[in-house]
Amino acid sequence: MTRRLYYEDSHIKEFDAVVVSCRERDGAFEVVLDKTAFFPEGGGNPADVGTLGGVNVLYTFERGDEVVHRCDGPLEPGETVRGAIDWEKRFSNMQNHTAEHIVSGIVHRRHGYANVGFHMGEEGVIVDFDGFMDDTELSNIEREANEVVWRNVAVIQSFPAPEELPNLEYRSKLDLTENVRLVTIEGVDVCACCAPHVKRTGEIGVIKIFESIRRKNGVRVRMLAGDRAYEDLKKRAGSVVEISALLSAKPDEVRPAVERLLADRDALQYKLGGLKRRIIQQKVDIMQETQGNLLFFEPDFDMKNLQLLATAAKEKCAVAAAFSGDDTMGYKYVLASAATDLRPFAKEMNAALQGKGGGKPELVTGSVKATRAEIEKYFM
Question: Which one of 38, 87, 118, 200 has the lowest number of neighbouring Cβ atoms within 10 Å?
Fold first, then answer.
């Protein structure tokens, strides 16, 4: 059995231990020590990494009652080695995990909702609750969570005796009966948890809930705490300053400035749409009727405008074909006809021009990988 130093003191950064065993597996070496401060992956919390006796610890996991260190080099059984945890990563994990306990505890007290899913990764801390909360309520929860941080409340771990458990109130995803470790944040939360945590909430620094997504039976929340929250907020603040400079607006006036910019864009797009419709109509007005087909290339037209053009021109020809694109990326197209069933026509054209598409007898849309010269040759 491995003695778990992280239960005795979550802030141990370095330690000495004896190598119990070392065996090679899948190109790495699985090392077991008599004691360790490396936390193995579990409960949504990532594994610790670092160094051990001059080799790198790539991953840490549990096997029975042992903690196994997956290393990039061998260690000799019986020797005493120095272990050093990647403290920056560990402390960040502790900040974020303890922050999750605070938020989940507040949600449980306010609403009775349970934390039914937890993951800590590069994208942040993801928590799933089995009930819905709107943005206003989540903002209030975030505020209360940070007040807990500012009060610098103690975070206490304990291992109650099995006979005590039925008389204790605590959160747990599993029905545990023995070896239960409780993490208590005074006045806020009591939860069964195996991971290391900060000793006082002031170590967390800041808690930020960034977004929530409504799910079938509740809500998914993404949050960050501590150094990761600080770096994220710093990046966001920098972006706001850069955007405010581009818009010639004060940082706290960025939103109305962007709203004005979007309104101007929408107005210009509306005017541009009107101009394109007039161009389309003018093109059609000057066309001579023909028994053959009409072919158009409009590099700046989207599918909507291609459809308007082809539909407007179909009364003056057998098949109106409108294309937009270039020889490198290919061309999207719209075919329209007032009298011809276009489906067989489009099938043959797609086969000849490396295309795909489909639609109704009178209107077909799709794309081809042919060049403009190849398209023009096909329609000659």
Answer: 87
